[in-house]
Prior knowledge:
The complex is a heterodimer of chains A (222) and B (252).
Chain A: E1 4-5, E2 8-12, E3 16-22, E4 25-27, E5 30-33, E6 39-41, E7 46-53, H1 54-72, H2 82-98, E8 105-113, E9 118-124, E10 130-132, E11 135-137, H3 141-144, H4 146-155, H5 163-180, E12 187-194, E13 197-200, E14 204-205, H6 211-214
Antiparallel strand pairs in A: 1-7, 2-3, 2-11, 3-12, 4-5, 6-7, 7-8, 8-9, 9-10, 12-13, 12-14
Chain B: H1 22-32, E1 37-41, E2 45-53, E3 69-73, E4 76-82, H2 84-105, H3 111-124, E5 136-144, E6 148-154, E7 160-163, E8 165-168, H4 172-180, H5 189-203, E9 212-220, E10 224-227, H6 230-250
Helix pairs in contact in B: 2-3, 4-5, 5-6
Amino acid sequence: RRVHGGAVVGVCYDQGVLLAADTVGSFGSLAKLKHVSRVHKINDMVAVGFSGDLADGDCLLNELQNMVIDDSVLDDGTELSPRAVFCWLTRVLHHRRNKLDPFYNQFIVAGFDKKANKPFMGCVNLLGYSWEESIIATGMGLHFALPYMRSQQEAKSGVPFTFEEAQTVLTKSMACLYARDCRGWPQYQVVKVDGAGVVKSDVQYSRVAFKESADYIEGRNS
Amino acid sequence: MSSIGSGYDLSASQFSPDGKVFQVEYAQKAVENSGTIVALRGSDGVVLAVEKFIQSKLHETEVQSMTRLFHIEEGIGASVAGLLTDCLMLVEYARDEAADYRESNGVRVPLKVLANRVADYVHAHTLYSAVRPFGVNIILAAVEADVGPQIYMVEPSGVVYGYSGVAAGKAKQTAHTEIEKLALSRTPCEELVKEAARIIHVCHDETKDKAFELEMSWVREGMGYERVARDTLMKADSYGKKALDDTDSDSD
């Protein structure tokens, strides 16, 4: 048993990407660490979020941050693009899978591709398998968040979400995860990536009203 | 002043009878042939300025090739005088050491530690006949959280000193005279940028030296290391040129 993180949810919208993850580090069923950051800014174009083993995730994050410093000292404006980060993560994770010693994570890479002027989002898992999508949820989010996000996306019939719509989808997904995932947590952070850069929010709170179950509690309203 | 080595100058592993290691002295000569570099420690940061000779009119000046100012680590800058390719090796070494320190200790390397590491590395190359010393003076600058702006300079012999202001290269004596006139600790970098440009212009010998390009960068409190922005650089450059012209017309 090791300290691990829950779901990461990502939604693309017309101008960028939103990524959210709760701030708990679980130790099995124990909510051991309550202020863990699982979404991070990499540089002005890219953010990553990870679920799974927190030690492994932090290790790869540290590597990425070192790579960013290596780029910055060259003073020529070179930055890792979203696809470069995505490719690097895929290769590293796949390599370790081949050695039967995986980094036990699922990463979401969210970025704004400045050349194509389009948002980018991809997911890589511990097998080194990667895919690009406009809506992604890792871990329990696959079951609790993804169906909802898909239905919202299908309702738009091919038109990308607006920022407000993406925010709503994200907020509701995080609330659902808190309500339904036994290892869920109400506090989460959101990272917004768009053409202007990467902004990480302060900790936000899921508001879930357990209206239905309240009626089952004896003594209520008596 | 310059003694003939006559037999004791063939390798760095030999002392001469009068107690010199000639190879190191010759390395220092290499530095003395290079364009002047100046570092000024102000109240809120350090300004680095370089007299970069333009080797050919065909060189593209917009593209920063063969620059003598380097970004070592977040908030640490360096300027170099001497053999440029030797300089590049030292810069790479400094970058690696800084990255290593950060990886092991989780914080940015204190400038003093980095300067000492670079100095040890330079010194190591003065001990053996199998390698030659570095023909480089490297100036390292940073703003440290607790002590403020700092400058260290490493010389080919491997000595390192901390400075409030320092110069190296061709006209270092002239530059030092100018630096001593400044009230460095009370002056902000905004002002020192102009003074540094002026000093470089004063040091430049129109008759003997090639045309030069002024390069400047600074490390400032809260702003890390940056090359000086183009418009600030141009203003400082014109200030420097004008100050030099004024002094020239004064002496007529």
